[in-house]
Specification:
Layout (H helix, E strand, L loop, with lengths): L5 H6 L2 E7 L12 H14 L4 E6 L3 H15 L4 E7 L2 E4 L2 E4 L12 H4 L1 E2 H6 L7 E7 L33 E5 L16 H9 L7 H15 L7 E5 L33 H7 L7 H11 L3 H20 L4 H7 L7 H10 L6 H11 L15 H10 L18 H14 L4 H13 L3 H13 L3 H13 L7 H13 L3 H13 L8 H13 L3 H13 L7 H13 L3 H13 L7 H13 L3 H13 L7 H13 L3 H13 L7 H13 L3 H9 L6 H13 L13 H12 L2
Helix pairs in contact: 2-6, 6-7, 7-15, 9-10, 12-13, 14-15, 14-16, 15-16, 16-17, 17-18, 18-19, 19-20, 20-21, 21-22, 22-23, 23-24, 24-25, 25-26, 26-27, 27-28, 28-29, 29-31
Length: about 725
């Protein structure tokens, strides 16, 4: 969850040194550096940098002194940046920046007269979060032809050489990738500086995303004649160069206050998913400040705070122990990553790292389309990978995608490897999950144009849902068809879904749906395998065959599909295609619960609630229902209401019972809604009074608090349900 608190933002120290060398004494002068430095100075000052130092046309001694002074200034800063515009050169794989007094009669003079890139980097070492070197110096070396070679093995080539920064949190941004030259352009600023000024300090944009946007603009503006490149790596946290907070939340109507995304997940639900597995009061307080108007998630957050307070008062259990207890069987890589970031010194660190490693793409698999396998690309797959996009790789369900962590990993991966269209697609997924639909569309389109069929399928869903513009189901169907005919299993399953649901005017056709799902399932796509199991179970599009249904569910469950696991649990619970076996049902529900399936958590609660296959245990039932409720199950919320109303497994609390009941109705549970409407005597008199009081507080009811569910109370319950 990206929540910027003003006090923290203001406290961040950001400093920059800008160097522009134009007036060279012994070689050709340059037109742009002075203008480029002025342009960058304005950008950093507008972004609120604490210190922006500019120097022009400096000799070696002055340049070294400026670097030394900046080294002191950068110590302790969160962000330190050096921007250089001028001549540079490469010799024997080492990069040098050229002061205006260089002569370079021979190659022996380079080390004495020029300034090595290592010296520039050393000036940034004291910064704590981001050290950024920006080199607008990838021009032709003006001394290449005139300089005498004293040693034949000293190679001097075009542009600058590739760098592999060893310092943590250091990025080196070249105006053009290694071995190529940059263009000065026809205007008063270079294309690189122009793009930097537009994007680098854009409010609310992570520095890696900004540098990617710079690269794309320069490539377009120079007709692919120049491609900027970024070397180095950062940690997992997002870094903004502009302290102004901007929350991008574009919807189909252009109403930036609308919180529900096209897939039905609210912003509050997405943010809660990113903190519910952490035992952290500060994060919950920030969540409440942002989403306190959402009654369901406000209640969940307040409940979590109460549990943490009680745990702190009654035991010596550390917060990381509480958090780990909810994660120790998890296959949610993002949740495990959050745990490591929040509790880096936990004794469970090694266990979490082992679980994360098991979820990553297998070693030995070439995960990059362009052959470059980096840690950032592996992190991008781990946090935003398309399900089953590689053999044995579980991937990430879209609704489980932690957009902020995925964004940082994928932006870095794309900066390192911009021609890998799968990485570009996954960057789009991260932006899509974060509701930054314009950027998501841009990256989906770029990847689709580059031949990535996952991206084309994701782009099709934008048309199917009308995510960022006009709804056009037929256009989306045609895009699905193109990707499906190209053999993409995700597209085949998506096309099958259209025909199964008869969505958006597409004729409902189970036979056609089965045909596409079968193609996808035959390629090992777990979601499609589970759906084939459903077709056999229901006898739709295929002859009803519970044994074959069970077989397909088994295949999908073994591939990691949560729906298949819960469906296997249901089959064993009800004897569908197999003998009734509560122990086996419980096993599969537990597996599904471990991958975050709220339906399975709720059914485990029901097992303990009624004593099916296990000894009746209301306290255990309440624990599972609460886990399911935290994961968004309205059914579990309704059952929690009953436990609190009658004091089953917990102390009786009518007010708490009423809040859970309201949350269940608001969450869309029809059973609890109908029970309150048609069977109010199922609830205690005190519950009925507390529900009336809650409805009055919400503005739905104005009658007496008497526990009598008359017409006005029933009308208020209707209004509560319609709010959803």
């Amino acid at each position: 969850m990206a929540l910027v608190q003003a006090g923290h933002a203001e406290a961040a120290k950001r400093v920059a040194l800008l160097i522009g060398n134009s007036a060279y004494q012994a070689t050709s002068q340059l037109n742009n550096p002075a203008n480029d430095v002025d342009l960058m100075k304005a950008s950093f000052e507008d972004a609120g940098f604490d210190s922006v130092t500019t120097i022009h046309d400096v000799d070696r001694a002055t340049m070294v002194r400026a670097l030394r002074d900046f080294e002191d200034n950068a110590t302790g800063a969160d962000v330190a940046i050096i921007y250089y515009s001028g001549h540079g050169m490469e010799m024997n794989g080492q990069n040098y920046l050229l002061p205006v007094d260089v002569n370079l009669k021979t190659d022996k003079d380079v080390e004495d007269e020029a300034i090595p890139l290592d010296r520039i980097q050393r000036s940034l070492e004291g910064a704590t979060k981001l050290k950024l070197v920006i080199l607008d110096a990838c021009r032709n070396n003006p001394f290449e032809q005139s300089m005498t070679r004293s040693i034949s093995t000293r190679a001097v080539t075009r542009g600058l050489a590739r760098v592999e920064p060893e310092s943590a949190d250091l990025l080196v941004a070249f105006a053009s990738k290694a071995g190529t030259v940059a263009l000065d352009g026809e205007g008063k600023n270079s294309p690189f500086a122009t793009a930097l000024s537009k994007y680098l300090t854009e409010p609310g944009v992570d520095v890696r995303i900004a540098l990617g946007k710079v690269r794309d603009e320069v490539v377009n503006e120079t007709n692919r004649g120049q491609e900027p490149f970024v070397y180095g790596s950062l940690g997992g946290a997002q870094i903004f160069l502009n302290i102004k907070e901007v929350n991008i939340n574009v919807t189909t109507t252009g109403d930036t206050k609308q919180e529900v995304s096209p897939n039905g997940q609210s912003e509050a639900a997405a943010d809660w998913q990113n903190i519910r597995d952490l035992a952290d009061k500060d994060l919950i307080d920030v969540f409440l400040a942002k989403h306190g108007q959402d009654p369901v998630y406000k209640m969940l957050a307040e409940k979590k705070l109460k549990l943490l307070t009680e745990a702190a008062e009654t035991s010596n259990v550390e917060p990381d122990e509480i958090a780990w207890d909810a994660l120790k069987q998890s296959t949610d890589a993002a949740a495990l990553t959050r745990f490591l970031e929040r509790y880096p010194d936990s004794k469970h660190k090694a266990e979490a790292e082992t679980q994360i490693a098991a979820l990553a793409p297998q070693r030995g698999l070439n995960i990059s389309e362009t052959g470059k396998d980096t840690q950032a690309s592996r992190d991008c797959y781990l946090l935003a990978g398309e399900p089953q996009s590689m053999p044995g790789f579980l991937g990430v369900n879209f609704l489980k995608l932690d957009s902020n962590r995925a964004l940082t990993a994928c932006a870095q991966a794309v900066n390192e490897n911009p021609d890998d269209m799968m990485l570009v697609n996954m960057l789009g997924r991260a932006q899509d999950a974060g509701r930054n639909y314009p950027e998501a569309r841009s990256n989906y389109q770029k990847a689709a144009d580059g031949g990535n069929m996952y991206a084309l399928t994701n782009l099709a869903w934008f048309s199917i849902y009308g995510t960022d513009g006009a709804l056009d189901v037929e256009k989306g169907r045609q895009m699905f068809l193109q990707a499906a005919n190209a053999g993409n299993s995700y597209a085949q399953a998506s096309l099958g879904w259209l025909y199964r649901e008869g969505y958006g005017g597409v004729p409902k056709d189970y036979n056609e749906a089965v045909r596409w799902y079968q193609m996808s399932a035959d390629q090992g796509y777990a979601n499609a395998q589970a759906t084939i199991g459903w077709f056999y179970r229901e006898g739709l599009g295929l002859p009803k065959d519970l044994f074959l249904s069970l077989s397909w569910y088994q295949k999908a469950a073994e591939a990691g599909d949560a729906n298949a696991m819960s469906s296997l649990g249901w089959a064993y619970q009800n004897g569908l295609g197999t003998a009734q076996d509560y122990a086996e049902a419980k096993k599969w529900y537990e597996k599904a619960a471990n991958v975050g399936d709220s339906y399975s958590m709720a059914l485990l609660g029901w097992f303990y609630d009624v004593g099916n296959g296990v000894p009746q245990d209301y306290a255990q039932a309440r624990a599972w229902y609460e886990m399911a409720a935290n994961a968004g199950s309205a059914y579990a919320m309704g059952n929690l209401s009953r436990l609190y109303d009658y004091g089953l497994g917990t102390k009786s609390d009518a007010r708490e019972a009423a809040r859970w009941a309201a949350a269940s109705v608001e969450g869309g549970d029809p059973a609890k809604f109908q029970e309150m409407k048609s069977s109010p005597n199922n609830f205690t008199p005190e519950f009925r009074k507390q529900l009336q009081a809650l409805l009055k507080d919400r503005g739905y009811y104005s009658g007496p608090i008497d526990g009598d569910f008359g017409a006005s109370t029933l009308n208020a319950i209707d209004r509560l349900a319609k709010k959803t």
